[in-house]
Write a structure and sequence with these properties.
The structure is a homodimer of 233-residue chains. Chain A contains five helices and eleven strands. Chain A is α+β, with helices and mostly antiparallel strands. The two termini of chain A are 40 Å apart.
């Protein structure tokens, strides 16, 4: 693959009403009220995540791998070793590699009285599209900063940027947010009316990520404090 | 698809030394020391998860969807509406639907001095294989119990089992654990020796799921206590 399309935008362009156009692939066959297409919902779910699950086809079979990602406006970036399989595939594919990138947050365990209505509260985003290798040096720099800032916002400015050797070892692919939807389940169990009298406890157990106390590296020099952007987590 | 292979086992058969045989697809091209194939590591990562990311191919493109799953011995089960797309595809496919099922736990944010060495601590399992629709009533019952017990262990015995109408609306697919590997990253950042003197804080921010106080359903009858299996979370 030799052509890397230029990014349409690298800044936020959403307004309150802006959204992604639904397609056959992004309209669910069930629970359509759980689907959202507005930029705010989609982007906030993406920005709250540390990793995505990237799906692609290798030798005719699906592959799903967890990996870091970063968002810049309406574009997602994934990186990896130039020797990694999906990155190699994207680089070789022309005109790009069909992928599906999915991000999911678990928000609660939903315990209904009936086994049938057990569920999870969650927020997810599913992106369908084609990934292209990024070769432009400036776009690669923006993408790599976004990948570090996805781990901790503000961190890219407080670490050593990649040097030439590291850049040469790193492949970056881009996936434009175009065919994308969010799905959100909230609230309590959906038991049938005839089950309300059953003697089982029913409700939701909230789940959320919790941050532990930062563990300094063994060789951290004395006197370097934990930065504010970490304390703010 | 009309043939549902019988489960090879529905009980735990692993011993300390038992494991899954590595294949071309389950040996990583990099960081081979992070790969594990023993039953104990693979099963414990699966059992600690509430959802998986299921990848399959639809109309020639990859699709990755978050969904509940359950484990019984060396078999995973996924369920859904009989009208759901992947379930329909598995039912129609002969001899089954190629899938990749991935489970990932985030354990820490790894902040290196260099942008290049930023990473995540995680535990993941990737299963390659073929999913088959389950039609045997007894295996379907075992699978549905396992799906509920994956949400909260012990819950299937303390809820109303599915009735005939619910069973008719539910499709179950199975995926045998055969071509499967775990990948685990632990520990601190992997900065290069020449970066140790740089003035950036470096270390790991631990991340783990935290459970909130159970929220009873609005129509929960008075006097039904929170069960021990929930308090034990």
């Amino acid at each position: 693959m030799s052509v890397t399309p230029a990014p349409e935008t690298t800044t936020e362009t959403s307004t309150a009403a802006a959204g992604y156009a639904p397609t056959d692939r992004t309209v669910p066959s069930r629970y359509r009220d759980r689907a959202h297409y507005d930029h705010e919902t989609v982007h906030s779910i993406l920005d709250a995540a540390y990793l995505c699950h990237l799906g692609f086809i290798r030798d005719g079979a699906p592959v799903v791998l967890p990996t870091l990602f970063g968002r810049v406006g309406q574009t997602l970036y994934v990186h990896g070793s130039t020797g990694s399989r999906p990155l190699l595939a994207a680089g070789k594919a022309d005109p790009g590699l069909p992928v599906c990138l999915t991000v999911t947050h678990l928000d609660g365990l939903v315990l209904a009285r009936s086994a049938f209505h057990h569920s999870l509260n969650y927020r997810s985003v599913v992106v369908h599209g084609t990934a292209y290798e990024v070769t432009d040096p400036e776009e690669r720099r923006i993408a790599l900063d976004a990948l570090v800032d996805q781990v901790v916002p503000g961190r890219s400015a407080d670490s050593r940027p990649a040097n030439a050797k590291e850049l040469a070892a790193t492949a970056v692919i881009r996936l434009d947010l175009n065919e994308v939807s969010a799905k959100v389940r909230t609230g309590g169990p959906g038991d049938d009316p005839q089950d309300v009298a059953l003697p089982y406890w029913t409700g939701v157990i909230p789940v959320a990520p919790a941050y532990g106390t930062p563990v300094p590296a063994a060789d951290l020099a004395p006197g370097i404090p934990v930065p504010d952007y970490i304390t703010a987590l």
